[in-house]
Design brief:
- Helix content is about 35%, strand content about 20%.
- It is of the alpha+beta class.
- It contains ten helices and eleven strands.
- The longest helix has 17 residues.
- It has a six-stranded mixed sheet with strand order 1-3-2-11-10-9, sandwiched between helices. Strands 4-8-7 form a three-stranded antiparallel sheet.
- Helix 4 crosses helix 5.
């Protein structure tokens, strides 16, 4: 029931700092052993956290280790945008113009377009998520501000997640001392799983508002249409989901020695949040068979096959994700 959702979002409305409601983890020792074998075989480091939202079973390896986010931090930007749309301070159809000479390289498509280019906020955020567009990300950061994104993260009680700067552009203000270590952003597997869960549960604040579901529907459509699907979705999507909708909503992140994926999986037995970060990877290749991508895919498959042996169902991945799990 929606009334059973966590009350974390209330702090967003009242302006006070709050901590996430505590739920007791139930470690799954048998699954943990399966994952340990996959982790041990990887030539690099792995940190992960996953939770079955129906049973509260969990698995964790370095779940509270601070890691580079790479593009996964774009989830936090999306969540800030959702909050501002909810507050009437932003609108999906508002105009954002990419100036001439503004585009940056790396992932995405806007780098190939000439400016000035008129876009909508929804266009910008969609490209930021589905093709991890770096230019779109900078436009979103300029629209909302680094400080606003970090303030919303703090309101969720997350102490180790931080967006530092734009991509390929000068920093705004003084950078924290640890920025050179983490680059674009830092987080922990447990904290980024929490951000994804808030989006999936459509927890934008309390009391719920009439427009919340519509806002979440826009964001979930972006996440379900994630273009990069060689990590957590790799072995899970056995049929074409282009028309019916994917059963995995996710955001990836990649650097030469980093691969990460954070997802909500619509298991037929119940929804599952999976947050996996690999780093210091020996394989720096940029192919679909990069070792880290395969490792994440194997970990995701082991988790879902254990907790949802009947597979996944994209039809349940709708606003709220069917995540209104009675506790």
């Amino acid at each position: 029931m929606k009334s059973m959702r966590w009350l974390v979002g209330a702090a967003i409305l009242c302006g006070c700092v709050c901590m996430q409601a505590e739920t007791a983890d139930k470690p799954d020792a048998a699954l943990q052993a399966k994952l340990a074998a996959i982790v041990a075989a990887h030539h690099g480091k792995v940190a992960l956290y996953a939770v079955d939202l129906k049973t509260q079973q969990t698995v964790a390896t370095g779940a509270d280790d601070e890691v580079q986010t790479a593009s996964v931090i774009k989830l936090a930007i999306l969540y800030e945008a959702m909050g501002q749309v909810r507050a009437g301070k932003a609108h999906w159809d508002e105009k954002i113009t990419m100036p001439a000479g503004y585009a940056v390289g790396g992932s995405g498509v806007l780098t190939f377009f000439d400016g000035p280019l008129p876009l909508t906020l929804k266009d910008v955020l969609t490209m930021m998520i589905i093709v991890s567009d770096n230019t779109a990300t900078d436009l979103a950061i300029d629209r909302f501000g680094v400080d606003a994104v970090n303030a919303r993260i703090a309101l969720l009680g997350l102490k180790h997640t931080h967006l530092y700067k734009r991509i390929g552009k000068p920093a705004i203000g003084t950078m924290p001392a640890d920025q050179p270590k983490f680059g674009l952003g830092k987080t922990t597997p447990r904290e980024m799983a929490a951000v994804m869960e808030h989006i999936g549960r459509c927890e934008l604040g309390e009391p719920e508002q009439a427009g919340d579901t519509a806002i979440c529907a826009v964001a979930m459509k972006m996440l379900r249409n994630q273009f990069y699907r060689d990590t957590i979705p790799r072995y899970l999507e056995k049929l074409d989901s282009s028309e019916t909708g994917s059963g995995v909503a996710s955001k990836t992140g990649s650097l030469d020695a980093v691969r990460a994926d954070v997802a909500i999986v619509a298991g037929k037995s119940g929804p599952i949040v999976i947050s996996i970060f690999t780093y210091d990877n020996a394989d720096h290749g940029w192919t679909a068979d990069n070792e880290a991508e395969l490792t994440i895919a194997r970990l995701g498959r082991a988790i879902v096959e254990t907790w949802s042996p009947e597979g996944i169902d994209g039809k349940t991945l709708v606003p709220g994700l069917g995540l209104a799990v009675t506790k």
